[in-house]
Amino acid sequence: MIKKLTTMCAVLLALIVALGGCGKPEEKSSKPGKDKRTIVFVFKLVGIPYSNACRKGAEQAAKDLGVNVEFTGPAKGGDVSGQIRIIENQISRGVDAIVISPNDPNSVKPVIEKAMAKGIKVFTWDSDAPDTQRIFYVAAADDVGIGSDIMDQLAKDMGGKGKVGIMSGSQGALNLNQHVDGVLEALKKYPDIKLAKPLLYNNDQPQLAQSGMAGLLQAHPDLGGIACVSSPGPPGAARAVIAAGKTGKVKIWGLSLPSENRQYLKDGVVNGLILWDPGKLTYLTAKLVNDYLDDIQPVDGSVIEDIGKLSVSDDGVVIMPGVVITKENVDEFDF
Fold first, then answer.
1. What is the pLDDT of residues 200-238, one digit of tens each?
2. How far apart are CA 280 and CA 60, in angstroms?
3. What three-state secondary structure class fits 323?
4. Is 226 helix (H, G, I), strand (E, B) or coil?
């Protein structure tokens, strides 16, 4: 009897040990997000309204796509070396994809090559680095064309004559330089509009946008308009125009968020904006990148719900539709 009891206890003990051992790997594999794909967006800088809107798009994409979508960037505008360090960190982490809005397209070339060599797929959005190994670039407008459109709108409001200034953001950003090229190209159509120098760079900082515009108004008291090709430009120019008592006398058109300019538009300080929803731009990019990692390429003419029809060129440029924002329709936009 004792022998049978001993045998039964031994069997029970073996079962308990076996069951306990089976539980360990299940606990280890249950950590949330461990096996999720990771896509990291590296912007020019963080903390300004435009990048905050982009971040929201990235966060929404993470929820909808079921992948890790992160958003980061340097803390100050024009910080080329800081942006490169962040990209290097993502390479060390071994993320699945890196999406960059370069402060300088040439400076990111070596890190893009390094990432691609390690099997990390690299893309650009918002601003391109075309002479690199990036796979495709997602833009919300033709980068030269949007500058031309801003100048055309400004020339119309100026009556085709006067002095016009140009304000950009980071001096090395390719997309901003192309916007400026578009303004200058369109300016050739208006012989009675002269360029007021110097060309202003605000490094995407609101205070520099305001102080730069104040300086331009002092240098050119007869300034008739300003074409702003980065988000802090129009509201910064508006504050300087108000302070100078020149509301309505200096026309302001540019690329900026409606939320930054809503009251300025309604008060007639800012005349109009040409833009896109940066949250949707980032969301779309995350979707296209995630699709690419699943071997699905962007297709020209495809229609994305709540975004519109895409244009895809042979050189890997994907363009989504943009909008013109004025005092009449500014309340339709919540970004």
1. 999 999 999 999 999 999 999 999 999 999 999 999 999
2. 9
3. strand
4. strand
Please indicate, yes or no, whether residues 257 and 206 belong to a single structural domain of this protein: yes
Task: Write out the two tokens for 290.
Answer: 């995630």
Residues 120 and 183 in one domain: no
Residue 129 domain flag: yes
Pairing of strands 323-325, 162-168: unpaired
**CATH number (domain holding residue 58):** 3.40.50.2300
CA-CA-CA-CA torsion sign (233, 235, 238, 240): negative
Q: Are strands 162-168 and 193-195 parallel, antiparallel or unpaired?
A: parallel
ω into 32 cis (within 30 of 0): no
Task: Please give the tally of structural domains in the chain.
Answer: 2
φ and ψ at 219, to 5 degrees?
-70, -30
> What mean pLDDT do residues 26-54 have?
76
Q: Is 260 helix (H, G, I), strand (E, B) or coil?
A: helix
Tokens of 260: 């930054």
Torsions phi, psi for 77 (to 5 deg):
-70, 145
Same domain for 212 and 284, yes or no, is no
- The pTM of the full predicted model, rounded to 2 decimals, is 0.78
Token output for 189? 């159509």
Total number of residues shown for the chain: 335
Q: Is residue 20 part of a domain?
A: no
Cβ within 8 Å of residue 141, ≥6 positions away? 274, 276, 319, 322
Question: Do 238 and 166 share a structural domain?
Answer: yes
Compute the Cα dihedral for 318, 68, 41, 258 and give only its sign. Answer: positive
